[in-house]
Fold these 2 entries.
Entry 1:
Amino acid sequence: MTGQERSEEKSECVSLSPMREAVPAPPECERVCVFGTGDLGRSLGLRLLQAGYGVVFGSRRPHSSSSSLIPHGAQVLGHAAAAQSAHLIFIAVQREHYDFLVPLANQLKGKVLVDLSNNLRKNQYPEANAEYLQSLVPGAEVVKGFNTLSAWSLQNGPSDANRQVYICGESVEAKQAVMAVATKLGFSALDRGFLSVARELEDFPLQLFPQWRLPLYIATGLSAAFFFYLLIRDIIYAYVTQGEDISFRIMVSLANKVCPIVSLIMLSLCYLPGVLASFLQLYRGTKYRRFPDWLDRWMLCRKQLGLLALGFAFLHVLYTLIIPIRYYVRFKATERTVSVIRENRTTEFDTTAAWRGDSYLSLGILGFSLYVLLGITSLPSVSNVLSWREFSFIQSKLGHLTLLLCTAHTYLYGWNKFLSSSTYKWYTPPGYMLCLVIPSVVLLLKLLLITPCVDRTITRIRQGWERGADQRNPKDSQPLIT
Ligand code: NAP
């Protein structure tokens, strides 16, 4: 018995349990074809079998392809024979090999070809893979889809992976057929339009944290800038002016200055675009005009800015908690105690210093708790169960309160050092003073926005009121969601 006969003998529709045992499927099950018995082809074939489809693989070597890797119950035929057995054909072959389809043009006429291919980089080819496929087989209906799934996610089932499938194509019927298969496999299919969108779908898997890029650049830039600034002010200054080597402070002291500074600036950068947008709306007297692109982009990455800011705040807390066990701190404390005893000195309890210290710590703790709350509620699983009002109360009202508490925490850290000339080494202000600039500006602008007369105007604008609306042509207005 030849390999082909063997696979034809198994050609009745069967489906598989997750343990890959053959389970009889309804006799009238629909057949689909998969070209290519590689990683994606086999995973897709297995999933199709589990969903109750009959699967026919089209392979260059149908006889040798019937290895143990082929899902049980699937049939393996040559491309031409496989194409004749089904109306819907998934092309799980790399784009470079698509020319094998040209001699099959007659068999593929009227068939729906699903292009699953991806590229190694953006703009690798002049046209999208799906458009190239359509040009090779003009008689077929090409649909781009399933390319955002991986072989791994297909094998693991819908409960353990991305459920969204994007498709596009020229023929509505062909897209409906593909969407029906996607739905039966447990995915939710989204029609993205015509085949011209294929390039965009092919770029999806190549994206690398697109919304995190700007916040990460900002965090890295700020960390590097403040690290070098503080290195000069704290370490190099001590070495140059007093000949003292305190470079060991780089590891903890310097890091524990950079982290809160970056955290506070990034938190204020989360709220600055919202405030700027409000002033822009006030100035324009309408909400129906687009924000500049830079402001739009900035507003879209506020969540990522906030989460990175929270990360830096966490580091600040961890560095602060280890202060008592640091060798330098223990040494200094012991030395001070010994010298007080030796000199038989007594020190007065300073109530003001105690108030200042406790307030500083307390504001820090409160600010950090709210910070964590903001981070938790920005997670989709949590924000999905909140109403819009609850979400906006936490992210806006409590968010500004967090900024206020953290800013006050930093002002208390500076306390009376703001006016002391010794603070300004080499005429430069300390890092914590610099980092107070943006949060203070944001809080001042926010204060202006919540004054009753400004608040009333901005609320009216957000409800659709336009200054001088009667004189303007309403067709010029374009609604905008803020
Ligand atoms: P693969 O493991 O390399 O398999 C490709 C299959 O194509 C081979 O097993 C072979 O099957 C067939 N093939 C190879 N050379 C051929 C030729 N010259 N002519 C005709 N058929 C040929 O690749 P894959 O990972 O399954 O990926 C297949 C396609 O899906 C690619 O376009 C890829 O971009 C896309 N994709 C893959 C994944 C993934 O997770 N792997 C995810 C999304 C999209 P036969 O030996 O049976 O002919």
Note: The beta strands are 14-16, 22-24, 31-35, 54-58, 75-77, 88-91, 112-115, 141-145, 164-169, 188-191.
Entry 2:
Amino acid sequence: MATAHIESKLEDIAPIVLMPGDPLRAKYIAENFLDDYKLVNQVRNMFGYTGYYKGKKVTVFASGMGIPSIGIYSYELYKFYNVEKIIRIGTCGSFNKDIKLLDVILSSGAYCKSYFDVLLDGVDVDFIKSNAELNRQIMNTAKKENITLKYGKTITSDVFDLYCDDAERFRDNFPDMNFLSVEMEAFGLFYIANKLGKEAACLMTVVDSLYDKRSLSSEERETSLNDMIKTALESII
Ligand code: HPA
């Protein structure tokens, strides 16, 4: 079986999927965290790998960037490959003073002004929650692993906000300043999951901040990303 964008066999996709944005991060996770893994998709180099984490079958499948891309991959995986849960593991920015670079954030839901929902279903939704049960599992796991998670709302943007000439003007589109993170995919994932009656969650590592301008070493980044990946993997076993 295959879909417009995925060449995998039905049995080669696990019911639980971890979804980084970057295909090479999918490869990194398979190589560093999974046993007996195999490459199950390379259409458009959007790599998917299926393997085992502590005996549990899991697929790591990249989403690409932005709502259109994650919208396609999450739809095809849920709808045609019987996937039940997708945990996005990505990076994000922040313009919240309480959030520091390399904090790991769990999204309670995503706010978005995109046209995606209008085009797909003729509805205009501004905020979609992530799955409460999946979030509970992730929070419990983080506690056990001694990994601090910040839990709160995400802005999903159609533009990479750092490329706006005026960061303050971008921020002023979102007068409720309780948003913890800004990224470009969570709304698409949560919207498709809700539409299809499936589960979705989103973990993010903060790599850009309006208030924290430290430059990060690659070692610091890797440690924080590994914490996030470990939290996601431990929460599905
Ligand atoms: N904004 C949007 N998406 C992102 C960012 C950001 O600053 N960093 C990583 N993904």
Note: The beta strands are 16-19, 35-41, 48-53, 56-61, 85-94, 104-111, 127-129, 149-156, 179-183, 199-209.
